[in-house]
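# nightly structure sweep
# worker-07 picked up a monomer target from the shared queue
# config: single-sequence mode, recycle default, output format = structure tokens
# input follows
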Amino acid sequence: MDTSSASSKQPNAQDNETVLSLFKDLVVAQDMAVPVAAMNALVLKLKDSKANTWMHLEKDLRSAINSLKTCSEDDLGGRSHISLHSGCELFMKYLTRAFSLQFMDFNSCKAELLRRGERFADMSLSARAKIAELGHSFIQDNCTLLVHGVSRVVTGLILKAAESKHFNLIITESRPDAAGLDLARLFSERGIPTKVVLDAAVGAVMEEVDLCLVGAEGVMENGGIVNKIGTYQISLVAKALDVPFYVAVESYKFSRLYPLSQRDVMDLSDYSDPSASSTSAFRNLSLQPPAMFTPSTSVRPSFNQGVPASPSKIKRSFSDLASALPANVTVEQTNIDFTPAKCITLLFTDIGVLTPAAVSDELIRLYQ
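# output follows
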């Protein structure tokens, strides 16, 4: 037993390097969503594994997941570890169900897992296309949208709406990386009237706004979301002025994560040490994935637009700010916040348009 265990350690370490390399390439070079990139990397691990028992295979996959969790925000394209963790646990949940419910022998089950896993490759773009189809009808002619943060799902939805409607965009500067500026350039090139405002000016311009639209890095079980810093305060202003606040997000970002305070989620985005793993923060929170869904193969995306996140800009912005201040002044290096369900009107997802309560009910039903 000990000999077998020892002999498997070195191949696993080598295999994990390949898994990490593929994952980073999919996220950074190919602009794939973090959870889907993680699933693709784990499919590679599944293919290469020499395991001949479930316990050995699970050990190999858990080893690969632990390696993925060491990725920095640079490796994740500026995203937090929330969606990475969700994607990995979703894959493992799907794996367990396949073993326990459908196949009697290991080889048959592994073969089926490979077939299913390979279908994950186009999940991200298919989900975005479906969300665009479902959500664009909420954008009416001559309305004004306020957009905060960079989201490929939101970008696709807006461009879909622009094919048949005329509307105006107000885009926040979106500090600390000022990503809103690049987003404004993208939309202006598509002929959409666009105005950029400071993050602090949201309250002043909200009376011009007909609806707010943001993406999300994760959807919590209570129906709240984790997203770019500043999302929470925008939702509060929108709620105070009765402006609808919509979220466009893929359903594979749904997580059984229970933030009790803003600090719970802020701890997952520490740019003071971007190489640090977020796994310690996850140990203090309960996170499990929902059941696997099968994306419609008939939905094919016609876009892959979006402005990649810039973790280097984020870190440079924090560094510049700190260098301009006395040494005894602390700079809060936070890039995400939590927006509770009470501030959200609807979520546009690839499994339908949902209320925040519907997200919670579905996850509770799956895990009761």
